[in-house]
Structures are given as C-alpha cells and as structure tokens.
Design a protein that fits this description.
three-stranded antiparallel beta sheet; 343 residues; NMO; TIM Barrel
C-alpha cells in the first residue's frame, strides 16, 4: 500500500503540526474535508489536552495524525543559562514577569504520550527533534499506526529507516518554526528542498513528504516531481480562521513592513526560523543552545508580550513563504495549493 493510500490522500497536501497552539482540531478537520491530511501537535500540551483533541477530531474524521517531540535535549550549562537569564531581566521587568534562574529540563511527558497514542490507536504518528526507540515504533505498528520521522539529511534518514519507520518527513532549512535536526548544535546545510527530497528518496528507499517554506501550487508540483508523495504546509495556514496562532502572530505575518526571517535560538534554545523582530536582533547572539531550558525561561515573557499585543517580544515563527499566508479559510488555501483554485 502506498503512502497516499495509507494517509487516504485525495489531495497531496499535509497541514503541518505546529506546536504552541496553531494546529487546532478545526484546522485538522478542515484539511480532511479537502481530501488533504492534518496533524495535531502534541508538543507543549498535557496528555489530557492531547487526548481531548484526538477525541474531538475523531468525531469528524479518521484522516489525521499526531506529532510528538521525541526527547533529544540540549542540557543547559548553568553559567551560560544564568548569563542569558540576566540579559533578559530588563525585558521581563517591562512586562512585570519573573524569570527563573534554575534551568528546567523536561521530556514533554514522552512516555505518557506514547502510551496514549497506542491506547487511542492514532492512524498516523510523526516524530521530530529526536528518534523514538525501535520498541516504541513497534508498539505503534502493533495497533495499526503509520509512523513518520522528520529528517533533515541522509544520515538522519538512515537512522530512521533502521528503526522501522514507514515514511520520512524531509524538512529543509526554509521551514518555519523549529528545525527537526537531530543535531541542533551543528548548522543545517542549506540544501534546496527538491534536491533534499530526491536524494533522501533515492538513498533511504522510503516514501517521503516534503516540508520547508512551501506556499504556492508551483512549489507543490516541484516537490512532487522530485519524488515526494505529498507537500507539507504550515506557515501558509497560520493566518486562516482555523489556525490557533495568536492574533499578534497573524498580524505580524501580514505586516508588509516585516520583510525578513532569521534562524534563532533566542526563544527556545533550539534553532528555529522566525520573522525578524527586536528580540531576535538583540538576543540571537546571546542565547545558549539549551533546549528545553531556554524555552521555559522565555515562556512567561513571550506570553506576556502576546497578551500585550507586542510582536517585538514574541516568537513569530515563519517559513520563507510567509508572504503567501492569507486570511482565507484553510480549505480555500489548501484547494488553491492543490491546483483546484487559481494560484
């Protein structure tokens, strides 16, 4: 059975899992209505929240998946963490929030989420940031789950193949939000997505889906021609009514004065692509590689800035195709990308 058949794809598009709120049940259901496929994002959610969202989606469709952050921590060094926290204190004082001086290390309820996904027999599960154990892949297979792994190069693809995964989500550096690299301490080579797809498809021998700044029907056709079974789109959906992105994030994506994205560790301690703002300008060079400690450190500041509608202190995740994000419905955007509507 092909991956298209396993995902029940009528439209070769996947609504990317976007942690932190954007990937709502409404967005996943909208993708299913078009014949595409959508992922819930388990990252940063409690097990109970993930369970509730799975149940909500299942009331409308069986065409969905769940993405999980696999543990691959970059432990914080106390001295560099404290130095970064100190540099943030004036910004925190502006929003009247307290910052922790003790790094928090957390596996995002990894084992409990795997147990939940097995219990719920979720149709598709994808992993990013790290690799699951082969036993976890087998447990999911035993309940009929299709397993995908996010990879950014051939070596990562080979490691994933060895675990017995069913397909690979090939992510280029043009993607918005966090890089799925397994080695966040090393720069990710800037390889065109089509080249990366073709190489990994050939050398890994598994079906692939392509992710990385895709925002036009022409780009969808290009990755399909390179060997992808589907195109993964995220940023282009962030401004839709079904997206759970904050209004400050949506407004920033539509702001014509914002004309640059940067890869930064300033918000989470792990490389991620975002719209450039004053926070990235000031703190990208100061932030240590320390995930998830930096994520937890900056979280209260980011939440306060969001509540204050201040885009200069918010992680405005965005891929290179962010200019094509519109306020149209998710169904309209996906059909347009699939060629059913004028591009």
């Amino acid at each position: 059975m092909s991956l298209k058949e396993q995902l029940s794809l009528d439209l070769p598009l996947i609504a990317a899992p976007m942690a932190g709120g954007p990937s709502t049940p409404a967005l996943v259901i909208a993708a299913a209505r078009t014949g595409a496929f959508g992922f819930l994002a388990a990252g940063y959610k409690t097990v109970e929240q993930v369970a509730d969202q799975i149940d909500e989606v299942r009331e409308s469709t069986q065409r969905f998946g769940v993405n999980v952050f696999a543990p691959n921590p970059v432990p914080a060094q106390q001295a560099s963490f404290e130095a970064y926290a100190e540099s943030l204190r004036p910004e925190a004082a502006r929003f009247d929030v307290e910052l922790s001086t003790a790094p928090r290390e957390d596996d995002d309820s990894w084992s409990q989420k795997i147990d939940l996904l097995v219990e719920k027999a979720v149709p598709v599960v994808s992993f990013t940031f790290g690799l699951p154990a082969a036993d976890d892949v087998q447990r999911l297979h035993d309940v009929g789950t299709v397993v995908l792994q996010t990879v950014t190069n051939v070596e990562e693809a080979r490691q994933a193949v060895a675990l017995g995964v069913d397909a690979l989500a090939v992510q280029a550096t043009t993607a918005g939000g966090h890089s799925g690299t397994l080695t966040p301490d090393r720069p990710v080579p800037d390889v065109p997505l089509t080249d990366l797809v073709a190489e990994i498809r050939q050398k890994a021998g598994l079906p692939v889906v392509a992710a990385g700044g895709i925002s036009t029907s022409e780009q969808v056709r290009e990755v399909l021609a390179a060997g992808a079974d589907a195109a993964v789109v995220g940023t282009v959906l962030l401004r839709t009514p079904e997206s759970g992105a904050s209004q400050v994030h949506k407004d920033a994506l539509g702001d014509p004065s914002r004309n640059e994205t940067v890869v930064t560790t300033a918000f989470s301690g792990r490389p991620a692509r975002a719209l450039r703002n004053s926070f990235t300008d000031r703190f990208t060079d100061l932030a240590p590689l320390a995930y998830p400690a930096v994520h937890f450190l900056t979280s209260p500041l980011r939440k306060a800035a969001t509540a204050a509608s201040d885009p200069e202190h918010v992680n405005l995740w965005a891929g290179l195709g962010y200019r094509n994000a519109t306020t149209d419905s998710a169904e309209t955007v996906l059909r347009r990308l699939g060629g059913d509507l004028p591009a």
